[in-house]
């Protein structure tokens, strides 16, 4: 008997779910409008004006087509293509993120190598880590002044903790035996760090990096809603102010897709550094 | 004249967790000759691994010293190769890379081709050839991993090879194969070997001399038993040698009874705690002229 592979069957099921989901969504929208009777809420908010309604998927797809066929147009400060907006967001995320990695990974390495440092820094990390990154925003705006730099700072501060904690933990947890292998081979501290500790701790470090990029992408949307000007977060907020819900739904989907791609990149890296014991 | 490897008045104490001190062993004093294969036998917890870690330079003793080839052991060195109990291969490297890791450390001036060739040669020596050497340790069986670990140690030509229960985790069949391989390589390279084991038969098969440790705390290396069975030895033939059961019984007696009776006696302060040499040779009292077995010589001399 012919048997489809597991992946193929799963993919088929995904497509079916997508199509069914879209059909239900499409069917639900006109039904709501055709019902004629207005709910109490709609009466209160001005009678269910059709232009502010939730769009059916066909409209979103049409919008997506229109936007994605010319993603980089630039017609003034309030009208830029989705590609440009996402580009700004990615630029901010990556800048803040790599600055954080540049500090968190070497610093985490040092903390992880010394039990005293690990214990000494731990209370600070534990207090700073649960602070919502957006809570830093007013302080950042006041101290840094520039809203662009403040957004990058917020990304920096939110992505530093998982990388710092995971690096320190991963380095501290490297098996004594592997260190002893390095010692019996007379490797110096630098070579031990690069040829034994780093590869041994890499899976934990990359897991931290993956968590960080996820958080950074979550935070950038909120941060850009606050600072405004450019970026996908600002775009969502701006379209909401224009009551263009089709664009809002479309950009929500784009946020998801970009987030997924960023995560997939680190998933790939993670697979490369993971080892089985 | 000092032996090649001289362990002098070695004492190790650890904090016992309740404010006091735990003396693992005190003033332990013994020697190992160049090219000798010495096995140390003793109950769990008597301090065998502690001694080995000190010999490797991975741990410092509370007092006393280890002198190898006229030089005091201070810290780990490429001259002392270690095969750890749990193999300690680096799991992110392939089998070949695990061995080249060691070779590169020993010969930093070699080219990559030279290093690879040398490593491949030693892997072949322990029976690992072809595709296997490009697999990760996690894709190897326990016995294969152990062989990689042995190849890594041998490829560096250490002056002293330290083996901590190297076959502990292996099944009897694999154990036998690797013991044979170890004997073969040792025969070719005239390596000085110091090995820990729990297995009496393994000890008799491999050793020139067996050191017997009493139970801890205050453990002592109480006896040094010469294995008066000529080489080359094979698993099936040694059991027929007249000395085999005499030696084996002596070892079983020691581990079963005397290791307990002799335990826990604090050493006389300042006096070296050296083992008593025991030589069991039933063939020497054998005056049957028809016996044409080769004359036995003392293995240490
Ligand atoms: N770092 C340490 N701190 C405190 N006590 C220790 C330490 N290392 C070893 N010991 C103690 O020293 C004693 C000897 O330990 P060791 O590991 O040398 O035993 P062993 O003879 O190798 O035993 P086994 O055959 O089970 O491996 C044990 O009682 C152990 O609890
Ligand atoms: Mg041990």
From TrEMBL, chain A:
<keyword id="KW-0812">Transmembrane</keyword>
<keyword id="KW-1003">Cell membrane</keyword>
<feature type="transmembrane region" description="Helical">
    <location>
        <begin position="124"/>
        <end position="144"/>
    </location>
</feature>
<feature type="transmembrane region" description="Helical">
    <location>
        <begin position="6"/>
        <end position="25"/>
    </location>
</feature>
<dbReference type="InterPro" id="IPR035906">
    <property type="entry name" value="MetI-like_sf"/>
</dbReference>
<feature type="transmembrane region" description="Helical">
    <location>
        <begin position="192"/>
        <end position="209"/>
    </location>
</feature>
<keyword id="KW-0997">Cell inner membrane</keyword>
<dbReference type="InterPro" id="IPR000515">
    <property type="entry name" value="MetI-like"/>
</dbReference>
<comment type="similarity">
    <text>Belongs to the binding-protein-dependent transport system permease family.</text>
</comment>
<keyword id="KW-0406">Ion transport</keyword>
<dbReference type="Pfam" id="PF00528">
    <property type="entry name" value="BPD_transp_1"/>
</dbReference>
<protein>
    <submittedName>
        <fullName>Nitrate ABC transporter permease</fullName>
    </submittedName>
</protein>
<feature type="transmembrane region" description="Helical">
    <location>
        <begin position="151"/>
        <end position="172"/>
    </location>
</feature>
<keyword id="KW-0472">Membrane</keyword>
<keyword id="KW-0813">Transport</keyword>
<feature type="transmembrane region" description="Helical">
    <location>
        <begin position="216"/>
        <end position="237"/>
    </location>
</feature>
<dbReference type="InterPro" id="IPR005889">
    <property type="entry name" value="NtrB"/>
</dbReference>
<keyword id="KW-1133">Transmembrane helix</keyword>
<feature type="domain" description="ABC transmembrane type-1">
    <location>
        <begin position="86"/>
        <end position="266"/>
    </location>
</feature>
<feature type="transmembrane region" description="Helical">
    <location>
        <begin position="97"/>
        <end position="118"/>
    </location>
</feature>
<feature type="transmembrane region" description="Helical">
    <location>
        <begin position="249"/>
        <end position="269"/>
    </location>
</feature>
